């Protein structure tokens, strides 16, 4: 074939083209291998967009993270070669991150005093670096799991939740037990996440008809419902027929059956439906958390 180059220049062009393509493919494979090892680039550059939890799974698998104990964030930060610092940011900003080439930076506000909140903030920012790249400034509301409507912030929350508390751990708990504040407390203590985050994680993965309602001064502040909960919760001031209404400093925890109409609109459940409520009062925050579950006869 080589002797034919003089008579057929197209063969020479073809060989050069094949060689260039081969070298390009080898370079791409080397680049992909490097990126996979260092886990710093957005893999969606090469692949179609994926579930944010999958990126967290990749990271946990790559670093050999143990599912039976809390994530060592210092090890993750070091493995990803991220520069982490605590410093004042813009007013209202709790976390920020930036990636430029292989240089990665996360800044956490000194206004975050709670260790569990700080851990989630860092995991959230790692999610931005790992999935989105660029520069991100995150306000307090951006970390609200379950109700965030900003796509990138919601994805960073999903990444952080899976990184800190993988879904298989939660699902294993829920196979034999109903959602409860007791399970949430167990998960919170074992995996160093907030109690609210643990409850939301359970509710988002649950196949029960259940919801979390946070209240302050007996006014509903926030509602997170499971995928199976299609009933409409009432807004505004809570009913005096709820257990939450009588939960206070003297009685900081209440649980039992209540009239479903105390929490839900009449037309959104059947007449035979029962409602089980668990409420905790947190005096330091002057806030109540209620888990309410609708049960049918076959529950």
Would you tell me the structural class of the helices and strands?
Answer: alpha+beta
Strand content: 15-25%
Number of beta strands: 9
The span between the termini is: 77 Å
* Main sheet summary: 5 strands, antiparallel
Low-confidence spans: 1-7, 39-48
Instruction: Calculate the mean pLDDT score and round it.
Output: 84
How many helices? The count is 8
Order of helices and strands: HHHEEEHEHHHHEEEEE
Question: Percentage of helical residues?
Answer: 25-40%
How do the strands line up in the largest sheet? 6-5-9-8-7
Tertiary shape: elongated
Give Rg in angstroms. Answer: 25 Å
Kindly summarize this structure in a few lines:
The protein is α+β, with helices and mostly antiparallel strands and 299 residues long. It has helices spanning 9-38, 52-63, 73-79, 115-132, 151-164, 167-174, 181-191, 195-205, and strands at 82-86, 93-100, 103-108, 135-139, 210-216, 219-225, 253-258, 274-282, 287-295. It has a five-stranded antiparallel β-sheet with strand order 6-5-9-8-7, covered by helices on one side. A four-stranded mixed β-sheet has the order 1-3-2-4.
């Amino acid at each position: 074939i080589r002797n034919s180059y003089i008579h057929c220049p197209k063969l020479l062009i073809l060989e050069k083209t094949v060689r260039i393509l081969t070298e390009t493919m080898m370079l791409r494979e080397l680049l992909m291998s490097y990126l996979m090892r260092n886990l710093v680039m957005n893999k969606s550059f090469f692949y179609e967009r994926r579930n944010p939890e999958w990126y967290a799974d990749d990271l946990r698998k790559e670093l050999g993270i143990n599912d039976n104990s809390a994530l060592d964030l210092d090890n993750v930060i070091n493995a990803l070669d991220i520069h982490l610092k605590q410093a004042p940011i813009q007013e209202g900003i709790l976390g920020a991150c930036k990636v430029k080439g292989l240089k990665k930076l996360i800044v956490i506000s000194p206004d975050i005093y709670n260790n569990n909140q700080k851990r989630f903030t860092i995991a959230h920012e790692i999610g931005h670096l790992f999935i989105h790249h660029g520069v991100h400034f995150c306000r307090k509301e951006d970390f609200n799991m379950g109700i965030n409507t900003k796509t990138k912030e919601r994805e960073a929350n999903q990444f952080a939740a899976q990184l800190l508390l993988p879904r298989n751990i939660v699902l294993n708990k829920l196979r034999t037990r109903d959602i409860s504040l007791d399970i949430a407390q167990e998960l919170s203590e074992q995996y160093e996440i907030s109690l609210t985050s643990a409850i939301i994680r359970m509710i988002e993965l649950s196949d029960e008809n259940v919801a979390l309602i946070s209240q302050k001064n007996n006014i509903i502040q926030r509602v997170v419902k499971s995928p199976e909960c299609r009933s409409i919760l009432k807004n505004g001031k809570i009913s005096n027929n709820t257990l939450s209404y009588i939960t206070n400093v003297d009685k900081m925890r209440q649980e039992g059956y209540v009239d479903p109409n105390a929490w839900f609109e009449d037309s959104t459940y059947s007449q035979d439906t029962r409602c089980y409520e668990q409420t905790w009062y947190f005096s330091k925050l002057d806030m109540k958390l209620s888990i309410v579950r609708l049960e049918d006869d076959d529950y």
